[in-house]
Amino acid sequence: MEKIFNNTENAFVLKNDTELDRAYFLFKMIASEPLVRIGTAVTNFAIKAHLPVEGLIRATVFDHFCGGVNEADCLPVVDKLFTKGVSSVLDYSVEGKEEEAQFDAALEMTLKTIHFAEEKQSIPFAVFKPTGFGRFELYEKLGMKQTLNSQEQAEWDRVVARFDKVCRIAHDKNVALLIDAEESWMQDAADDLVAEMMKKYNKEKAIVFNTLQMYRHDRLDYLKKLHEVAEAEGFYIGMKIVRGAYMEKEHKRAEEKGYPTPICATKQATDDNYDAAIAYMMQHLDKMAIFAGTHNEESSYALIEMMLRKGIEKNDLRIWFGQLYGMSDNISFNLAANGYNVAKYLPFGPVRDVMPYLIRRAEENTSVAGQTSRELSLIKAERDRRKGR
How far is CA 252 from the centre of its chain? Predict the structure, then answer.
């Protein structure tokens, strides 16, 4: 099979020389773990102290990894990406909120992105995080099978109502809806609620998508059990498959509380688990739809190979590849140039509110072996190519 991900001309076609230089500088910084630690601490302090750092953040890390401060801000980026066949998923990336008014605001923002998706071919999905619609502790308590008091039950009923409203409107407008995964100790309650939404709104096809973090060794079993339920009750499964985003936190909590870590023992075990989940879904594509969220070239090639083997069209809407904005452009743009469905997660929100997301991105790039060095080598190759023109 032809290796397509080394074409840097395609990968960076939308970046001018200045933007390419900025990307090189950013990934050079991220490559240094001490620098990321220091930078994170300084940034957090500056924001809490209300120092005027937003302009600097916006001009560097924010503009590289985010679409804008609001949804309108993102639209020029969306349109630009789509000129090269890369779609967008508008992701309101404000985290850590705990007030009812903030949950209602997140719901309204998600509904707004559904309306955008209905109107624009370039936005095929909407997305939200479970904790955007309700308190983390509430999910955690339910996941531990603890009884809610009357106040908490009323609060949970409002969370369910938000989920139901957004899923119903997505269904009515025929817009696929991705629901992100979070930490394992709150995920059971979220999984149960998303499964209920699938039963209700995925009767004709996959509209509601859950997310499986395959660095968890129990997720393939969960998928198989959900498939049994879907077969028995007659609904489709939509699933975003990712490796995962909370590894350090998961290990730390397991150690502190004295239970076995839910994370696979090795990186290879995670890779195998990810590929096994994709293979399982490909075997059952008649009743499933895949959003393959990966920055891993080998996993992307493996899915391409399966599609070729099964004679599945490149643009079959049951299969999407996804990457984060600002990362793995060599995968996204080369997939799009070769006719595959590909979408970039395009985070947006006020600079201060999006900082937890940006810090996680920096830490992820630092901790994932080879991620940053690959980005740097590709950027360097493209800079050299341009100099040699």
Answer: 23
Chain-centroid distance of CA 320 in Å reads 12
Q: Measured between alpha carbons, how far is 165 from 218 in angstroms, rounded to an integer?
A: 30
Question: For residue 348, what is the enclosing H or E element?
Answer: strand 342-348
Q: How far is CA 373 from CA 191, 366, 379, 387, in A?
A: 35, 10, 10, 21
Average pLDDT for the chain: 92
Contact 195, 237 (CB under 8 A): no
| Long-range own/partner contacts, residues 30-33 (CB < 8 A, 24 or more apart) | 30/362, 30/365, 30/366, 30/372, 31/365, 31/366, 31/372, 31/373, 31/376, 32/366, 33/366
> What is the CATH code for 67-352?
3.20.20.220
Predicted confidence at residue 67, as pLDDT, reads: 95
* Residue 208, H or E segment: strand 208-213
Structure tokens at 228: 């049994």
- Token readout for 345 is 């997660």
Which whole-number Å values give the CA distances from 67 to 19, 49, 54, 310, in the listed order? 14, 26, 15, 36
Q: By the 8 A CB rule, do 294 and 300 touch?
A: yes
Entry field: residues in the chain: 389
CB 214 within 8 A of CB 243: yes
Looking up tokens 């339910």 gives 142
How does residue 310 score in pLDDT terms, banded at 50, 70 and 90? very high
State how far the alpha carbon of 227 is from the alpha carbons of 223, 236, 280, in Å: 6, 9, 10
Task: Provide the whole-model pTM.
Answer: 0.94
On the question of pLDDT at 376 being above 80, the answer is yes
- Residue 354, pLDDT score: 86
Which amino acid type is present at position 160? V
Backbone angles phi, psi at 180, to 5 degrees: -70, 155
Contact between residue 176 and residue 238 where contact means Cβ atoms under 8 Å apart: yes
pLDDT band at 32 (very low <50, low <70, confident <90, very high): confident
State the DSSP code for 148.
P
Distance CA 31, CA 273 (A): 27
CA of residue 92 relative to chain centroid, distance: 11
Domain ranges of the chain: 67-352
What band does 40 get if pLDDT is binned at 50, 70 and 90?
Answer: confident
DSSP H helices, the chain, are 8-11, 17-30, 33-48, 54-57, 63-65, 71-82, 100-119, 136-143, 150-173, 184-201, 219-233, 247-257, 267-283, 297-309, 329-337, 351-367, 371-387
